[in-house]
């Protein structure tokens, strides 16, 4: 399955990839889905992949460690450190993959209008060569599938009760 058009991917500079996706949910819920392990395990990664390790310390200076397992049993690990957290609008973290060179800066911005959230993720790579290697690795396909899974999770949630999350694990 390729990107079905729900994820817009551009290269605004020679070191960046920008991904934009709209979700039918308030940004507080979208932001929460990116920071709670019990929710991340339900959507993060392409179809047929599972998140076998999901450790999150969502505070500035804290970090995360994820290991995704593919249908062939192959693991792909990644880690990061949070540089800025401004819930539910914006987050910035540094990110690196176990099997790819370099560390990238990931800036996520969530804007809401009429209950719809637009997520814009900008990834700044150390070089054009690393950006191009990542782009050719199937990243767009994997991100599109992952965000499709997130959209399904958000749409399957029941209306929130006062003071309760509607995404309870």
Describe this structure in words.
There is one protein chain. With 169 residues, the protein is α+β, with helices and mostly antiparallel strands. The chain has one domain: Alpha-D-Glucose-1,6-Bisphosphate, Chain A, domain 4 (2-Layer Sandwich). The chain is built from four helices and eight strands; from the N terminus they run E-E-H-H-E-E-E-E-E-E-H-H. An eight-stranded antiparallel β-sheet has the order 1-2-8-7-6-5-4-3.
Q: Which key features would you list for this structure?
A:
single chain, 169 residues, alpha+beta, Alpha-D-Glucose-1,6-Bisphosphate, Chain A, domain 4, 8-stranded antiparallel sheet
Secondary structure elements and their pairing?
Elements lengths: L7 E3 L5 E8 L3 H7 L3 H7 L6 E7 L6 E7 L5 E12 L3 E8 L6 E10 L2 E9 L3 H9 L2 H17 L14
Antiparallel strand pairs: 1-2, 2-8, 3-4, 4-5, 5-6, 6-7, 7-8
């Amino acid at each position: 399955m390729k990107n079905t058009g729900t994820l817009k991917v551009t290269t605004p500079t020679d070191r960046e990839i920008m991904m934009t996706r709209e979700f039918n949910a308030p940004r507080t819920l979208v932001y929460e889905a990116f920071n709670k392990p019990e929710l991340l395990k339900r959507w993060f990664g392409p179809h047929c992949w599972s998140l076998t390790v999901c450790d999150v310390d969502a505070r500035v200076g804290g970090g995360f460690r994820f290991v995704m397992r593919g249908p062939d049993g192959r693991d792909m690990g990644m880690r990061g450190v949070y540089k800025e957290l401004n819930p539910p609008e914006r987050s910035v973290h540094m990110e690196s993959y176990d099997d790819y060179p370099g560390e990238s800066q990931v800036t996520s911005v969530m804007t809401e209008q009429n209950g719809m959230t637009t997520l814009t993720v900008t990834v700044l790579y150390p070089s054009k060569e690393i950006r191009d290697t990542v782009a050719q690795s199937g990243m767009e396909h994997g991100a599109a599938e992952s965000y499709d899974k997130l959209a399904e999770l958000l749409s399957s949630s029941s209306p929130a009760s006062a003071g309760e999350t509607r995404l309870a694990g």
